[in-house]
Amino acid sequence: MTAVRTSTLSDSLGAGTLPTATLDALYRRIDLRVVTILAVSYLLDCIDRLNIGFAQHQISERIGLTPQDYGFAAGIFFIGYVLFEIPSNLLLPKVGARRTFFRIMVLWGLTSASMGLITNRNAFYVMRFLLGVFEAGFAPAAMYYLASWYPRERMATAISIQQIAAPMSGVIAGPVSGMLVQNMDHVAGVDGWRWMFFLEGLPSIIMGFVVFATLPDKPSEARWLTPAEARIVEENASSTGSSHHGFSAVLRDKMIYILSLGYFCVICGLYTISFWLPTVLRQSGATSDLQIGFLAAIPFFCGTVAILTWGRRSDRLQERRWHGAIPALLAAVGLASIVATTGSLVGAVIALSVTAMCLYSTYLVFLSVPSDLLKGPGAAGGYALINSIGLLGGFCSPIIIGHVTQITGNVNAGLLTMSGIVALGGLIFIFAIPGGRATPAGTMPPE
C-alpha cells in the first residue's frame, strides 16, 4: 500500500525521500516563522538608514549643510558599517543569531532616534557614523542565518522574501517621512525632521526584543519543528558543505574579491537612488516634502515587484549569470535616462521606477551567489567580507554625487558617473559568474 503523506516527518525519513508537497509545506512554515521576522527587521533597518533623504531639505536649512556635506553624512554611515561588520559576523557563530540581532537592532534604534537631537554638522557626521557601527553585521548575518535554514535551490526565493524589505522601506518611508517632516513641523516646538527620527527609531528597539523572544538560533532549537524536521532542514541547508573550512581560506579566494567588486558597483547604483531620489524629484519639479514622499514610493514599489518576481524566476531556472547581468545593464541605461528627463516630473518618476526595478533585481541575484560558494565556519566572515567591500559603494556614491552636485548645481553628472559604474557590475556578472545552472552546494566554480 502507498504510505499516507503527511507534514509530520518520521525520524526514519530523509530529505531525499520526502514528497515535494511535504517539503514545500515545511519551508512555507519556515518562511512564516523565520523570514517574515527578518524581513520586518530589515525593513526597519532600511528606513532608519535612508530616511535622511526625505529630511535633507529641512536639515540642510536648519544646520547649514551643502550638498557635499549631505553626501558625506550619507556616506560616512558605511565607514562605520564596514569597520565593524567582519568582527560582528565572526562572533555570530559563537554568540548565536538571536543575541546578535538583538544587540544590533536595539543599538541602531537608539542611535536613529538620537539623530533628532543633532544641532550641527559635526554631530550629524558622528551620529551617522555611529549608526553604521551599530547596524554593522545585520545584512550578512541574515544571509548566513538563512543559509542555515534553506537549501541552495530555495535560497534566492528566501532572500527575496527577506530583501523585499529594502524597496518596501522606500514605499513606507517616503509617505510616512514626508508626512512627519511636513505635518509634525513645530509640534511642541520641535522641527518635523526631528520628530521623524524620534518616531522612526522607536520601532527598531521594540522589534529587537521581539526577535530575541521568538527567533531560534538554529533549526534544532525551533520548538515549532519536530526533531526529524529540524534534522532534514539542517542536512539540506546551504551552509552545509566543504568548500571553505575557515575564514583564512575565504581570504585567499580571488572569486570573493571579484564578487565584492561587482557588489560594490550594484550598491553604488542602489544608494544613488536611495539617497538622491528626493533631490531628483525636487529638481524635476516636485514642490513639497509630502509630494516628494508619495512620489518616491512609486519607484520603490516597482522595486518591490521586481524582487518578488525575479528571485523566484532565478531559482526556478537555477540561473544566476544573466539574471544578474541583464538588469544591471538596463539599470545603467536607466540612470543615464534620468538625466534626459530633467524638468519633467512624470518622466523622472518613470525613469526612476525602471531603474529601481532593474537595480533591485540584480541586487537580489547578487545576494544569492555567495551561498553557492561559501560553506563551513568561515562562511559568516565571507559574507561579511563581500558585504563590507561592496558597501563601500554606499560611501563613495553619495560623496561623488554630492561633490558633483555642489559644483554643477544639479545631480546629472553624478548620475552619469553612477551609470558607468553599474554597467561595470553587469559586465562582472557576465564574465565572472558561471553560466548555466547555479553552482551546486559544496563546490566552487572553475577558476
Structure description:
This protein is mainly alpha-helical and 447 residues long. It has one domain (23-432): Up-down Bundle (Growth Hormone, Chain: A). The protein has helices at residues 20-50, 52-63, 67-95, 97-114, 121-135, 138-147, 152-163, 165-183, 192-214, 227-236, 247-251, 254-283, 289-317, 321-340, 345-373, 379-408, 412-432. Helix 6 runs antiparallel to helix 16, helix 8 packs antiparallel against helix 9 (192-214) and helix 12 runs parallel beside helix 16. The chain is globular. Mean pLDDT is 85; it is low at 1-16, 241-245 and 438-447.
Outline the fold blueprint.
Blueprint: H1 20-50, H2 52-63, H3 67-95, H4 97-114, H5 121-135, H6 138-147, H7 152-163, H8 165-183, H9 192-214, H10 227-236, H11 247-251, H12 254-283, H13 289-317, H14 321-340, H15 345-373, H16 379-408, H17 412-432
Any idea what the CATH superfamily is called? MFS general substrate transporter like domains
Question: pLDDT below 50 for ≥5 consecutive residues: which ranges?
Answer: 1-16, 241-245, 438-447
Whole-number average pLDDT? Answer: 85
Structural class estimated from helices and strands: mainly alpha
Main location: membrane
Membrane topology: Multi-pass membrane protein
GO molecular function: transmembrane transporter activity
Organism: Acetobacter nitrogenifigens DSM 23921 = NBRC 105050
